[in-house]
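This part of the workshop introduces the protein records we will be handling. The structure tokens are whole numbers drawn from a learned vocabulary of backbone shapes. The record below serves as our worked example for the rest of this section.

===
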Amino acid sequence: MLRTAVLTGALAILLPAAASAEVELSFYGGIQSAPHSDVFTSGADGYPSNTRVKWEGKSFDAPPYYGIRATYWASETFGYGLDFTHTKVYSDDESREGTPYEVLEFTDGLNTLTANAYRRFQPMRGFTPYVGAGVGLAIPHVEVSNGATSTAEYQITGPAATVLAGASYDINDRMSVFGEYKFTYSQNEADLDGGGTLSTDIITNALNVGVSFSF
């Protein structure tokens, strides 16, 4: 339902402009990873106050990593739009060893929704380079358990920001393929069942490939 709402909202914003400019819908997947981060809890009985966590991406495990993007190109060089990314992070076994955590992950996504601006450049040998950046919200599915209490729900946990760079290649007038690097930072403060909060700042690095359709 979250993904459907995002795509419907993006279309409602962007499609009325299609008559006068280019609207582009993009779908992508790829490989994403996340470096270690500290996980803090406050007012949460049965959880450690600070745990250093090594995250695993497992991009191709169900549910897989993917993204949906809607862009309104106001000119040949400038565009803006919405980008929903379904990122995932799992704490590894070693990070949980010796702690009360039985589950510590954001795997039905460490989802982010950002409003982005893009700049594309003159094509070079058929490839069109572009860069982009944006800010928005982290909307993860928080999955935390210590055996006595368990949290498993979507929450808005804080701000998110992203930057990306890549290149696209036109297949025809309406369809193109692209590859890019995408960096995303999110601040996450989640409410835990049983009381208290869990917070962590997570960085993800992704190599994406995808397809775009222009209208």
User: Anything to note?
Assistant: The radius of gyration is 19 Å. The chain has one domain: 2-214. The chain is about 10% helix and 60% strand. The CA atoms of residues 39 and 200 lie 5 Å apart.
